[in-house]
Amino acid sequence: MTHKHLVDIAYKWVLNNASCGVAFKELKSIGAEIPDVLGFGSGGHSVLIECKASRSDFFADKNKDFRKYPDKGMGSHRFYCCPEGLIKKEELPEGWGLIYVNDNGKPKCIAKPYKGNNVHKYTQEKNTLAEYNMMYSALRRLQLRGRMEEIYEQPK
User: What pLDDT sits at residue 122?
Assistant: First the structure.
């Protein structure tokens, strides 16, 4: 299973299962962190998903500055997404969730970083400025392409 395949699955998962109405895949913006998937919901809710196709990639992730200092990272909730069995629950950083993807490409959340179904509670400290910068970057791209007027149109 490729990293790109995992990212596509995680993107759909965050939109359908994590109270996020908007999400980005590997969007570069101002700052060092480029999340594989970052979803946004109302009330400052955000979900980061890091996809790992190998154990070496998972272990290398721990050395990133925003993993060593979680308040520098994005996501009020954070998950790893990987092929089944690649990462074990007991290997997760504190407060992280885990999504397994089976051979058929079906995701299953096996560890949640919150209790019950209340995704708006039990949040981590996060870098809100980095999240604002990502939103700004996405909206600025629409502005530069002359597509900002579309945000005023009502969905069909």
Answer: 60
